[in-house]
Amino acid sequence: MTRAMRTPLSRRSFLAAGGGLATLAATGALSACGSGRSAGGSSAGAAMTMWGITGDQPFIEPTVTEWNAAHADSAISANYFGTNDYKDKIRTGISSAQAPTLVYTWGGGTMRSYVDAGLVQDLTGPLSGKSGFLDKVLPSVLDAGKVDGKTYAVPLSASAPVLFYYNHDVLTKVGIEQPKTWDDLMSAVPKIKSAGFAPISLGGGSKWPYLMWIEYLVDRIGGPDVFKRVLDNTEGAWSDPAVLQACQQIQDLISAGGFADGYASVSADTNADLALMATGRAAMLLQGAWAFDSIDGIAKNFVSDGKLAYGAFPAVSGGKGDPMNIAGNPSQFWAVSSKANPQQTSAAIDYFSSTLWTDPYTKRLADSGNIPPVKDASALLPKGFPQGVYEMIQKAPSFQMSWDLALSPAASAAFWTQLDLLFNKSSTPQKFADAMNKTIGK
């Protein structure tokens, strides 16, 4: 697929589409596969139902067609929904008699809630002897489908980490290098400001870009175990010194004028934050890999003229986190309903192992501009940014899921409120921690 055919993505549309630097356009009416099949429910026999997302239909549909042609007794009845419609439907459907056999999930806190409620199966045992297809997937991505070390879901889609974008022209004019450490970043702020540029573009009007800063800083300062303790419902986990230090460093950056003026009203969903960097008004931007395809529409030839630079989030002096750790969206996943009978469970595992991460499946993702989270995918990807981001994913010791997805729905709602207060300096690091500690276990 050529760049002209790609559809620019914000993080919201990335999640809605199921991921990637670009997505294939779904054409025609999106309806259930087959005729006369119910939209959900596990019945006797091995026939299966599947609920998926319309944005991923171009990748999923060929596997369903292939499977059904060879497995009439365990055919899949697939239904696709828009993201919000799916979330509404699965919220009640997952625990009903109409629960789909194959459950589409973003993982994280929602999947953990499914596990705690006994709504999805532990696939560790069923996958034994059939896990060859998962051996192709990068370990850091596989981990996002596990709860307490057990596999409850298998990856099905592309990966998109968050990284720093730089306007190389601005850095050259200012006379600075890409910051490798937090101290480098803080030192660069006054130099960039004095040269007449905004140091960092931030789409605070959309709120979700705030989370990228805290999740990376906490990782760099304390390592991935800090947030793992939050997910493990450890009492007082949000009061970890790494969280308090990260909050303080964010507010120190704000006080230093690190973000572009008016950042709290800049929209990331319309790529206004990306435009500030790509048009040379800001030097830096922390954003997801999904933003890349929007650059040419904002500043023609920005990439081809060598103006784009990118890299990992800076290291923090004395921090425990590996500077190669990344955060973002590892993948979307398939889980299997606990209501599936043994024949359906066996058929589901066979479907996964025979259709996911085969050469054709991986190539479909790569040809559409996505980054498949599999080993040795570099040769399938265009040179430059896609291969560079793939290398970051490949080498990452830890790929932490975006916190808003990883947290439970109740904790995530409180997180947005507290994060907004923190970035607007209406709160303090301690108040942030105290408020979030009240969400532990909810």
TrEMBL record:
SUPFAM superfamilies: Periplasmic binding protein-like II (SSF53850). Pfam families: SBP_bac_1. It comes from Microlunatus flavus. This is Raffinose/stachyose/melibiose transport system substrate-binding protein. It comes from the Bacteria. Keywords: Signal. PROSITE patterns: PROKAR_LIPOPROTEIN (PS51257), TAT (PS51318). Residues 1-31 form the signal peptide.
